[in-house]
Amino acid sequence: MTVFAAEEQNPLLPPVGEIIVGLITFAILAFVVIKYVFPVIEKTFQERRNAIEGGMERAEAAQAEAKAALEQYRAQLAEARTEAAQIRDAARAEGQQILEELRTQAQEESARITARGEEQLAASRQQVVNELRGQIGSMAVSLAGRVVGESLEDDARRRGTVDRFLDELDGMAASTSSQAPTGGSTVYVPEGNR
Amino acid sequence: MTSSAHALASVLAVESDPGGGFVSPSIAEFYPPALAEFSIAGLDFSITRITVISWIATAAILAFMVLATRKPTLVPRKSQWLMESGYGLVRDNIGRDVIGPQYKPFVPFLGALFFFILANNAMSIIPFFQISPMSKFALPLVLALLVYILYNAVAIKNKGLGGYLKEVAVPQGVPGPFLLLVTPIELLQVFIIRPFTLAVRLFANLFAGHMLLVVFSLGTVYLLGKFGENFSFVFAPFSFLMALFMTFFEVLVIVLQAYVFVVLTATYLNGAVEKAH
Question: What domain range is B255 assigned to?
Answer without folding.
Answer: 49-273
